[in-house]
Amino acid sequence: MTGIQQRAELQRRIWQIANDVRGSVDGWDFKQYVLGALFYRFISENFAAYIEGGDESIDYASFSDGDPRLSAEIKDDMIKQKGYFIYPSQLFCNIMANANNNDDLNTDLDKIFKAIESSANGYESERDIKGLFADFDTTSNRLGNTVAEKSKRLAAVLKGVADLDFGKFEDNQIDLFGDAYEFLISNYAANAGKSGGEFFTPQHVSKLIAKLATYGQTRINKIYDPACGSGSLLLQAKKQFDEHMIEEGFFGQEINHTTYNLARMNMFLHNINYDKFHIELGDTLLNPKLKDGKPFDAIVSNPPYSVKWMGSD
Q1: CA distance 270 to 304
Q2: Residue (of 286, 213, 287, 215) closest to 250 by Cα position
Q3: 277-281, strands of its sheet edge to edge
Q4: Cα separations (Å) of 295 from 11, 290, 298?
Q5: Among 39, 55, 119, 290, which is least packed, fewest CB within 10 Å?
């Protein structure tokens, strides 16, 4: 499937999900549920694949949560390696299997997301995992007035995401998450009275900026975006180099809390492990959080130049 075909299929599927929940969820809010479900599916499949290690005789989804192969030592090692832990019963595929018959789906998902985030507590990855599902609020009244209504609409979103079939994420001709994000922002931002340009940089622009910033360099230790949005510029830089060429990783700061969460999710979705990115929340001009340490080899940026300055001058 070509990139154009994948993009068309992705957009068709997104509209199909929209039709299933139409009239109940505002477009801007709907974006968060689709992206949250995409992220949940991805980290579930990524985590299971990591444990299986390419051994086709191992099916992590079929394990019981109390399987002796999931000892405390194994769990500890997995969190140190991946940054989080997901029990078999918490995997996207296992939740999806009974989603349509689960009237408590919304509260079950809420517990799962909290458990995934809390699995990193006390580990180096805690800061990178905390709050990742904050905008995927499964208990919000925006989904319905009753638990059953919320669960029904969430089941429709999960089914739509489950039906997305692009094979392995890393084999895609397009940036699945980035394309979904850009598509949803561009279609819903205007209706919500928001400026999509504050949250993302179109992929063709990101590619040009990344190429200019890395021109002539064969190896980069650190790359930085002071207004990173959802991370598109940093990720385009990754595509210009073999992943081992950007050694210490990807650094950025973002003032918008929702977009800050999306940037961290985007890193995981592109197989950038928690120890290879450092995204901070805050105003870079008033409170730069990445000014110490080794200097950056490359800086990319598409700052929100039209946003009113709120500093003292």
Answers
A1: 24
A2: 213
A3: 277-281, 246-254, 220-225, 298-299
A4: 40, 10, 9
A5: 55
Altogether, the residues listed in the chain come to a count of 313
Dist. CA 31–CA 135, nearest whole Å: 10
Residue-wise pLDDT tens digits, 120-139: 999 999 999 999 998 888 98
Q: Do 208 and 233 touch, CB atoms closer than 8 A?
A: no
> What interhelical angle do 27-52 and 147-162 show, nearest 10?
60
Distance CA 135, CA 85 (A): 20
If DSSP codes are grouped into helix, strand and coil, which group holds residue 153? helix
Amino acid at 38: L
pLDDT tens readout for residues 234-258? 888 887 776 556 778 899 999 988 8
266, 276, 275, 272: which is closest to 38 by C-alpha?
266
Distance in angstroms (rounded) separating the CA atoms of residues 149 and 194: 28
- State both tokens at 50: 């990591």
Which pTM does this prediction carry? Answer: 0.83
- Which amino acid, 185? I
CB 252 within 8 A of CB 279: yes
